[in-house]
Amino acid sequence: MKPQPPLLALIAFLFLTACHKDDLQFIYSRDGIYGANEVFVIPTGEAAKILGKWMVNSITVKHKISTFVQTNNYVGRPVDYIDFRTDGKVYTFTLNNSDTSKYFVRSEKEITIDTDPATVKLLTANKLVLYSYDEVGSLGFTEVTYDLRK
């Protein structure tokens, strides 16, 4: 019996589109860029403490450009939160603005939100402190500290 053209087309389609998931992913690089197709893995062990809804105690932002330094401290309100879900998304609500981002827990001390790396300074069952540092050219930096509670 001779194969039918639709069957040959289906086989050709499956052959051409069959690839491993890893082939589609970008590799983590030292400059902090992560692949858009990276697969989320639910954190386990100590890192799993990050999961859930965290209330905002404060957010401190420090900008330094050349000799100019500005520090802003936002005190969280009862409605402000950051919610790390098991689907790899983090939902935030602060300053009457909501946002949804992808996140990845790299280790007990490192997390990436979208493509922005952050250091986990403190993680207990009831307290989370995240810190991020971003250079602004050769003239300065921006650093942000999130103080959160459950």
Q: What portion of residues belong to β-strands? A: over 45%
| Whole-number total of structural domains | 1
Which consecutive residue ranges, at least 5 long each, have pLDDT under 50? 3-33
Strand count, sense and barrel status of the largest sheet are: 8 strands, antiparallel, barrel
Percent range of helical residues: 10-25%
The computed structural class is: mainly beta
Q: End-to-end distance, in Å?
A: 67 Å
Shape, per Cα inertia axes: globular
Radius of gyration, taken over Cα atoms and rounded to an integer in Å: 21 Å
Strand-and-helix sequence, N→C?
A: HHEEEEEEEEE
CATH topology: Lipocalin
Q: What CATH architecture label applies? A: Beta Barrel
Strand order of the largest sheet: 1-3-4-5-6-7-8-9
CATH class: Mainly Beta
Number of helices: 2
The average pLDDT value, as a whole number, equals 80
Number of strands: 9
Assigned CATH superfamily: Calycin beta-barrel core domain
Folded structure, characterized:
The chain is mainly beta and 150 residues long. The protein has a single domain, classed as Calycin beta-barrel core domain (Lipocalin, Beta Barrel), CATH 2.40.128.20. 11% of the residues lie in helices and 50% in strands. It is built from 2 helices and 9 strands. An 8-stranded antiparallel β-barrel has the order 1-3-4-5-6-7-8-9. It starts with a helix and ends with a strand. Mean pLDDT is 80; it is low at 3-33.
SSE inventory with pairings:
Blueprint: H1 5-17, H2 21-24, E1 52-65, E2 68-75, E3 81-84, E4 89-94, E5 97-107, E6 110-113, E7 116-123, E8 127-136, E9 140-149
Antiparallel strand pairs: 1-2, 1-3, 1-9, 3-4, 4-5, 5-6, 6-7, 7-8, 8-9
